[in-house]
Structures are given as structure tokens and as C-alpha cells.
Design a protein that fits this description.
Blueprint: H1 10-21, H2 30-41, H3 47-59, E1 64-72, E2 78-87, H4 93-104, H5 111-122, H6 127-133, H7 149-162, E3 164-173, E4 179-181, E5 187-197, E6 200-207, E7 210-217, E8 221-230, H8 240-246, E9 255-263, H9 267-274, E10 279-281, E11 287-295, H10 296-305, E12 310-314, H11 316-331
Antiparallel strand pairs: 1-2, 3-4, 3-5, 3-8, 5-6, 6-7, 9-11, 9-12, 10-11
Length: 334
């Protein structure tokens, strides 16, 4: 309980009451606010002060709703009663839940970081929202985490904004479940964009050794540093939507045209993976021919995943590679 607060804090305490105790389904009368001010803040005030401060908050731009009711008092005079006060929060409960679910199903943030972020998101709503999410525990405890992730994101944001190069160590996991550098020298890159896909953050960039686009998982990056050297301009014609559609598993390398036959019932999956740039021809009741521009290494893996439902017809070299992959996979079970 707060004790002996100065009267000038009334407006802040009223705002806090509205934030913590109200929404469209939970409204307060001026009498309710009076009681909460006294019980929670040890601040007895009169009804007129509550009304005046509520109106001041509205004048300051806070999205506060209330109901006006006109009634006749004992003197036979009309008077307006203001009631049902509540604050429209910046985020609806559904929006907050969507953000929290994104953290719960995320595979890149450490468990304690996710919990801390969820706690902050809950603070954007009220006590009733807290009750809806306090029993949700879907954060994975057994996934190794890179605690430098958020720092890496901060540095990359600054580098992209200032058009600067960055250097970092890129790592892989070994059987000891720890990150180990892939090479001794640092990677030096021109950062384009940070993208989130398949539950991971990726850095899209070009590096000093190759002119083509490279993708690096942020949770595998350590020791990042912002460099003074200016980054090279983006490759002509590069756009993020096209890049994401053509690099479905974020493999590096150029994209090529691929044609494949597919069962009609997986058209939704095809559009989910390749976007709306995919073209369909030779449509029958059971089958369709799809044409996409995609990274060949990614397509080779995707074709294995959907092997029961599709058959690559072009390029022939890719079809042959997939056929060999399937034979090798089958041999493991013979």
C-alpha cells in the first residue's frame, strides 16, 4: 500500500487504476475509483477531483471511454451522471495473445528471456488478462540457446540503419551441445535485412568473399561487431518477398526455374511455401503442374518432404538428384 502520497499524483494513480482494473468488459464507477484510490494508494479524494482528473486524462489524449446518463435530481433539476469508466488499451487481448504465442513457439530466444518478455507483454493489459495466460507453459526447456541473440539483433539494426558492415563468428553445434566456430577468421558481411521464418531469425546479406546472397541464422552468431567500413549497395533487383519465396529453407545460392507435378490437394501447401508467384497449368481434378523460382538445394529438400505428393520434372539434373536421395533413404530401411 502507498502511504502519504502528494495530491499531484492523483492523476497518475487514476491512470494506473484504469490500466490495471478496466477494459471494455470491466468498467468502474467514480465511486469504485474513489475506493481504489483510498485502499490501494492511501489517497482519500472527493468525487469532483476524480471526475476532473479523468477528464484531464482524456484531454491529454488517453483513450478513455465512459457513459453519460441524464437524470432528474431531488430538486427537479437535470444532471449528467458519468459512469462505466474504462481504458482502451493499446493492444487487445487477442493481439497480446498472438504476440505471446509467437514467443512460446519461438525457437530462438532463451527460456528466461521469453518469460521476461511475456511478463512485459502481460503488463500492457490488465489483471483479467493475467488470469488468462498464467497457466500457459509451452516454452521449450531442452533447446540450446544463444544468449547473445538480442545483442546481435541490436547491432544488426544499427548496422542496417547506418549502412555499415559487421563482423562475427559463425558457429555450429557439436555433440557436446555447445557452439563451435565454423572457421577461425571472422565473417565480414554487408547486412541487408533481418527476416523471421521457420521459427528462426536470419540475417540476409552479402559477404566479402561472394557476390551472391547469403543467409545466416542469428542464433548461431557470436562476437558480432559493428565496423566503420561502409556496406556495399544491395544487389540490383533484390527484394525481400522474392528472396523469402525463393529460399524456403534459407539456403544460400541462386534460384532457378523448377517444374513439378503435384497432387491437387496440396495446392494450399504449395502456396504456403512458395507464395503467390507460383504458376499452375495442366490442371485436372487430381493433379496440377506447378512452376516456381526457387533455390535448388532448398527444392531438393522440399521434394523429399513432399515426396509422396509431388514429382519434379525440370530441371532433369534436380530430378535425378532427388531420385538418388530417395534410393539412399530407402536403403537405410532395407
Amino acid at each position: 500500500m502507498y502511504t502519504g502520497q502528494p495530491k499531484k499524483l492523483i492523476i497518475l494513480n487514476i491512470l494506473d487504476i484504469l490500466r490495471r482494473h478496466t477494459d471494455e468488459d470491466h468498467r468502474l464507477s467514480q465511486k469504485d475509483i474513489l475506493e481504489l484510490l483510498e485502499n490501494e494508494y492511501d489517497m482519500p479524494v472527493d468525487r469532483k477531483s476524480v471526475k476532473r482528473n479523468l477528464m484531464d486524462l482524456i484531454d491529454f489524449g488517453y483513450d478513455i471511454e465512459y457513459t453519460e446518463t441524464v437524470r432528474v435530481n431531488k430538486k427537479g433539476e437535470e444532471e449528467t451522471i458519468y459512469s462505466d469508466w474504462y481504458l482502451n488499451h493499446d493492444f487487445s487481448d487477442a493481439e497480446l495473445r498472438l504476440l505471446i504465442d509467437g514467443l512460446l513457439f519461438s525457437r530462438h530466444a532463451a527460456t528466461n528471456q521469453s518469460r521476461e518478455l511475456i511478463k512485459k507483454l502481460c503488463g500492457l493489459s490488465n489483471e483479467y488478462f493475467d488470469a488468462k495466460v498464467k497457466h500457459i507453459h509451452s516454452i521449450r526447456e531442452n533447446t540450446p540457446k544463444n544468449r547473445e541473440l538480442f545483442y546481435t539483433i541490436d547491432i544488426l539494426d544499427e548496422a542496417i540503419s547506418r549502412n555499415k558492415k559487421v563482423s562475427f563468428t559463425y558457429n555450429s553445434y557439436d555433440v557436446d551441445k555447445k557452439l563451435h566456430p565454423r572457421r577461425t577468421e571472422k565473417y565480414v558481411v554487408d547486412p541487408y535485412q533481418i527476416a523471421a521464418t521457420n521459427g528462426r531469425y536470419y540475417l540476409i546479406c552479402t559477404d566479402d568473399k561472394h557476390e551472391s546472397i547469403s543467409n545466416y541464422r542469428l542464433d548461431r552468431i557470436t562476437g558480432i561487431a559493428l565496423l566503420d567500413e561502409r556496406a556495399k549497395p544491395k544487389l540490383e533487383g533484390w527484394t525481400l518477398p522474392r528472396h523469402m519465396a525463393e529460399h524456403i529453407y534459407m539456403y544460400a545460392g541462386e534460384s532457378e526455374r523448377v517444374v513439378f507435378k503435384a497432387k491437387r490437394y496440396i495446392v494450399t501447401d504449395i502456396i504456403d511455401w512458395f507464395g503467390t508467384d507460383v504458376s499452375f497449368t495442366d490442371v485436372t481434378e487430381d493433379e496440377v503442374t506447378a512452376r516456381v523460382n526457387v533455390n535448388l538445394a532448398a527444392m531438393r529438400l522440399w521434394a523429399m518432404q513432399y515426396g509422396r505428393h509431388i514429382r519434379v520434372t525440370y530441371p532433369e539434373s534436380l530430378a535425378e538428384d532427388i531420385k538418388n536421395d530417395l534410393k539412399e533413404a530407402l536403403s537405410h530401411y532395407e
